Amino acid sequence: MLFGMSAREDDTVVAMLASAIRRDISFGVLRPDQKLKIEALRQSYGGSNHSMRETLRMLVAEGLVEATNQRGFRVMSATEEDLQDILLMRVETEKLGLSRSMVRGDVAWEARVVAALHALSRAETAVQENPDDVTALEWDEACRGATETLLSACGSPRLIQMADKFYNQSRRFRLTLLREGRVDFKARAERLEKLQRAVLAREAAAALALLEDDIRADLGI
Question: What are the CA-CA distances from residue 196 to residues 112, 203, 208 (Å)?
Answer without folding.
Answer: 11, 10, 11
